[in-house]
Write a structure and sequence with these properties.
Helix content: 25-40%
Shape: globular
Structural class: alpha+beta
CATH architecture of the domain at 102-117 and 188-295: 2-Layer Sandwich
CATH class of the domain at 102-117 and 188-295: Alpha Beta
Number of strands: 12
Distance between the termini: 24 Å
Strand content: 15-25%
Number of helices: 9
Length: 326
């Protein structure tokens, strides 16, 4: 089903909000999607701020398709995908299995690294062990294994004020998560690649004006400069786009995904490391997928409609396959 052929009378529920740490971002994403659909002539669009009654509300609304604008758990980890599968409601972006794997940084490595995708070597550590000593040589990064948008990420350096070893009284993810993923810090540049459908769009470089590209830098206007397309050698850009598309395919992503990279520009192509892949990338005014789509001549409204068209086409193909095996 192609863009422009979608029935303007489709009942589209835009699922947003929820209760994760990324709730404010999800609300911004969802509101943008609702406005774009209405501007494009869709007459039956419902904004649904998800709470614990979500199953009953969806049953009552009986949508033709759900645009999943949730970020974090339970909208990005396979939970809502499983619910929608049980209810036989088509939905945008990736399915249950892909979502469950991609939200978990350790599982993502287990899938991608054996296929040649270069990712930082890491290990899981108990947060309490950090008060006794470092898990690896500094500088290193600590992050929750299943949070997005750089929620709870800490970069531990010799100059950081976390202590030697880390103090139990120092504010950081060790105070909020029992286990964390520790990875060597990759020096260099922060870059990202969006994939739409089955095509990598381009490479964007992210230049935070202070600190690193954390949650505030991602979603506060003026704190990060986006260079789109990134000013990197063509071979480096091509390698990142190939890697992003490979990760998208290997994990079975649908709709749009976004792969985040660090590039040590002193090592050339060998310095490219995939950090994570996001199956529910933001759709806010500051988000990277809409920005890269614009660079490719795809406006925000068309982007939203393309994602919905792929979801409906996928649901049709799944139904036909079930019918043929029945």
């Amino acid at each position: 089903m192609s863009v422009g052929l979608l029935d303007r009378n489709l009942h589209i529920v835009v699922l947003m909000g929820g209760w994760s740490a990324e709730r404010p971002v999800s609300l911004m994403s969802g509101e943008g999607v609702v406005a774009a659909l209405r501007e494009r002539g869709f007459t039956n669009v419902t904004a649904l701020d998800m709470d614990r009654t979500v199953a009953a509300r969806l049953a009552e609304l009986n949508p033709d398709v759900v645009f999943n604008a949730l970020h974090g758990t339970p909208g990005e980890d396979g939970t809502i995908q499983g619910l929608l599968d049980l209810m036989r409601i088509p939905y945008t972006h990736s399915g249950l299995t892909t979502s469950a794997i991609a939200i978990d940084k350790e599982l993502t490595k287990a899938v991608l690294v054996p296929h040649g995708v270069r990712m930082p070597k890491g290990k899981m550590v108990d947060s309490s062990s950090l008060y006794e000593g470092d898990p690896m040589a500094r500088p290193f990064v600590l992050k929750p294994v299943n949070e997005g948008s750089s929620v709870g990420v800490a970069i531990v350096t010799d100059e950081s004020n976390y202590g030697h070893p880390i103090s139990a009284k120092a504010e950081g993810p060790w105070m909020h998560f029992e286990r964390l993923l520790a990875e060597p810090f990759i020096r260099g540049r922060e870059l990202t690649v969006a994939v739409l459908g089955d095509e990598a769009l381009c490479v964007t470089e992210l230049k935070p004006k202070a600190g690193f590209y954390d949650f505030d830098a991602k979603y506060t206007d003026g704190l990060t400069e986006h260079v789109c397309p990134a000013e990197v050698p063509p071979g480096i850009a091509d390698a990142m786009m190939v890697t992003a598309l490979a990760a998208h395919r290997l994990l079975g992503c649908k709709g749009a995904s976004r792969s985040d990279f660090r590039w040590d520009d002193q090592q050339g192509e060998a310095g490219i490391y995939l950090l994570e892949i996001n199956t529910q990338p933001g759709m806010t005014p500051l988000s990277l997928v809409p920005e890269q789509a614009r660079h490719r001549g795809i406006g925000y409204g068309e982007l939203v409609e393309r994602i919905i068209a792929e979801a409906l086409a996928g649901a049709t193909n799944k139904a036909e396959a079930l019918e043929n095996t029945g």
